[in-house]
Amino acid sequence: MAVKVLVPTALQQFTENRSVLECSAINISELLDSLEESCPGIKARLCDDQGELRRFLNFYVNSEDIRFLEGTETTLKDGDEVSIVPAVAGG
To answer: Taking the model in full, what pTM does it have?
Structure first.
């Protein structure tokens, strides 16, 4: 199934400067593996040493934060849009 992934500018160095990728995956966890396969090195920027999503990155499936869904086990279906959004802080 094809899922569109929107990649932030800071990670586009791993995607040959592409801001949109198309991947096949049944959930976010599998999507991370698919991204790593097509864009070597990106998973280390998305996940910590324990394989958990980094705290300063937010993942959305069709504008829904996966933290309020099923986390990395959030199911994906054909045509879904996954956005990777870096957290913004400041004051």
So the answer is: 0.91
